[in-house]
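WARN no homologs supplied; continuing
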Amino acid sequence: MNTTVARLTARGLFGRRRVLILLAVPVMLLVLAVISANSTLDKLDLAHNVLGNLALGTLVPITGLIVGTGVIATEIEDGSIVYLLAKPLPRWKIVTTKLAVAVASTWLLAAVPTYVAGLILYGSGDGVALGYGVGALAAGAAYSALFLLLGVLTRHAVIAGLAYALIWESLIGNYVEGARTLSVQQWGLALTKAVAADGAVIAPVGLATAVWLLVVVAVGATAFASVRLAGLTLGSEE
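OK structure emitted
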């Protein structure tokens, strides 16, 4: 990890208007949790709806999308990435540094609010809040890697990532049984189930499968992004 690249990436990520969007979503989640905490509905069902559907299903992927594409796609689009690529830095180190910033930002803006919202809604009982927090950590890292890769692959990374999050993760991944195995959201839910008390959370994907797929996706996306960024360097030089 290169500290200079990390500092410049964080400054670019949080120095633009997108920071307002990044802060708005977790704030809305926490406000909803406070309001819902006074509801007469079953607390566990309420926690699943808010933490599973809204937090893990919407907040985490949207935050991962904005952050993952924001750490590199904007620089590629406006051409400023050339100045960074001109430095004597291995391309994989640029990618891993930007990914580290993206993952840390996603954890701060999505996983932490998810855990806090869980405490507000259900308290610390049955490990539900902690489970959803851990699930958000795992899913957030995978989303960050995937969307960073999209930022390297296409100039329309936000549109492509939004289509993926809405169509595959929210619709197909939730309602088509065979597709759940390939859903990042369901992988995060598997970790949630593993951390929470027995019977508190239901997940359609096994823990071992989820962990392996999370690792493969995160490492594979990072490696592929490094290769493509090296190709971008060659293309720019030519």
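Residues 91-122 form the longest helix (32 residues).
OK
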